[in-house]
Design a protein that fits this description.
Elements lengths: L2 H9 L19 H13 L2 H39 L3 H18 L1 H37 L1 H9 L1
Length: about 150
């Protein structure tokens, strides 16, 4: 195994458990299903049962083949991403950027953004107005006769 195979194996996590193979739980029958199956097999001829067993074996083989094809496709996908330099963190970043673009494109976001911007402008104007009023009052106090007489005594 060369360096590229090590990186590929470490970076990529398949959703399919290749070691486990086909999930045998798919073939599990509940007691009720088993009882129904037994009664159904009693009505099937030996030839029909053989045909169904052959079909079952064929479907199980197809499932194994598809699992192997899926595994090969997932490995090929990981190799292409590795060659393109697309890693897990870069994919996450792209997903976040795309998600943010999707959010900002929504009309509800634009309305909220506009409302908050307007509220911020109004708050800024209000604070500016309060500052002007305070400055004016302080100037009035400074120019008042009481303040001037206090200033002269100190």
């Amino acid at each position: 195994m060369d360096h590229r195979d090590t990186d590929l194996h470490e970076d990529y996590q398949s959703l399919f458990d290749f070691n486990a193979g086909v999930n045998k739980n798919y073939l599990y029958l509940s007691p009720e299903d088993a009882a129904a199956t037994l009664s159904a097999t009693e009505t099937l001829s030996e030839e029909e049962q053989d045909e169904l067993r052959r079909e079952l074996a064929k479907v199980e083989e197809e499932i194994r083949t598809l699992s192997q094809v899926l595994a090969a496709k997932e490995k090929h996908l990981a190799e292409i991403k590795r060659k393109l330099g697309v890693g897990s963190l870069q994919e996450l970043k792209q997903n976040i950027v795309q998600g943010w673009q999707d959010v900002t494109a929504k009309s509800a976001y634009r309305k909220i953004s506009e409302t908050l911007s307007q509220a911020g402008q109004e708050a800024s104007a209000a604070f500016s107005s309060v500052g002007s009023v305070i400055t004016k009052k302080l100037e009035d106090v400074k120019n008042s006769p009481t303040f001037k007489s206090f200033e002269e005594k100190t």
